[in-house]
Amino acid sequence: MLTIILLVVAVILITIGLVWLVDKFIPAKFKPVLVILLWVVIGFLGYQTFMSVYEPIQFNKVKNKRYAQVIERLVDIRDSQLAHRQVTGKFAKDFDGLVKFIDTAQYTITQRRDSLVLDEEMTKRYGGVETMKEITIIDTLDFVSVKDSLFKSSDRYKSMMFVPTAPEGTKFEMDAGFLEEDAVKIPVFEASVKKAIILHDQDKDLIAQENEVVSVDGVNGDALKVGSMTEVKTNGNWPKTYGDSE
User: Fold this and answer.
1) Tens digit of each residue's pLDDT (9 = 90 or more) over 220-245
2) In sequence order, which residues have a C-beta less than 8 Å from that of residue 189 and are 6 or more positions away?
3) Which residues does 192 contact at the CB level (< 8 Å), separation at least 6?
4) Going by C-beta distance under 8 Å and a sequence separation of 6 or more, which residues neighbour residue 243?
5) How far apart are CA 208 and CA 99, in angstroms?
6) What is the rounded CA–CA span in Å between residue 48 and residue 182?
């Protein structure tokens, strides 16, 4: 970008120099036409210089606003999936199942307490001498609606599958399954959307540049996503500047 700006500025300066040369050395009868043409070139190059700076600035404003909206949806998806895993032991594979779960599922509120009870086996071994053992008792105290816990009175979970700012009806891609580590199956999920979909109506060259981003302050790669189908993680791939990714 800086190279382009410097090049255009250099061309403008050269053109201004040419205007001076024309004014100084070209016969008077040719001067008006040449001078007008050169000033048209200067105006065009000036406009190109301005747009080379202005368009990326506007693109970044649009990008940041849209990313923030998309990330809000991804956070809702993640929170819903974590609740699904907590209650069922696995992640939901599709949005229909996830929404139905939120509508109907409940958290079980429990309390753990320690207690002493008679250890019959040890009592027999010691000839009838009562021997006690410590156990942990889990009491069920209450049930709480997952929907009320996560979303209170809001029903936004019913539309969390749709990508905001994308063409109407565009959904996030989502999958869920298991990874095996040390013979243990661990549930995983991933929800994502391509940057090109979020920025579908923006300049294609700027979108291509955004897809190549590698920065601690940017969203690396060509998509916004949360979770992973290849790693055991549930965080998002966006930086802290867009909000908590954990």
Assistant:
1) 999 999 999 999 999 999 998 887 77
2) 81, 91, 92, 174, 175, 176, 177, 227, 229, 234
3) 172, 173, 174, 223, 224, 225, 226
4) 68, 71, 72, 75
5) 34
6) 59
Per DSSP, helices labelled H in 89-151 are: 95-104, 120-125, 146-151
What sections of 31-166 are H helices per DSSP?
31-88, 95-104, 120-125, 146-151
Specify the pTM.
Answer: 0.72
Cα radius of gyration rounded to whole Å, the chain: 32
d(CA 242, CA 58): 18
Length reported for the chain: 246
- Cβ contact 120:155 at 8 Å: no
Look at the block and give the residue holding tokens 């959307």.
193
Tell me the pLDDT tens digit for each residue of 146-188: 998 899 989 999 999 999 989 999 999 999 999 998 889 999 9
Q: At what angle do helices 31-88 and 204-211 cross, to 10 degrees?
A: 50
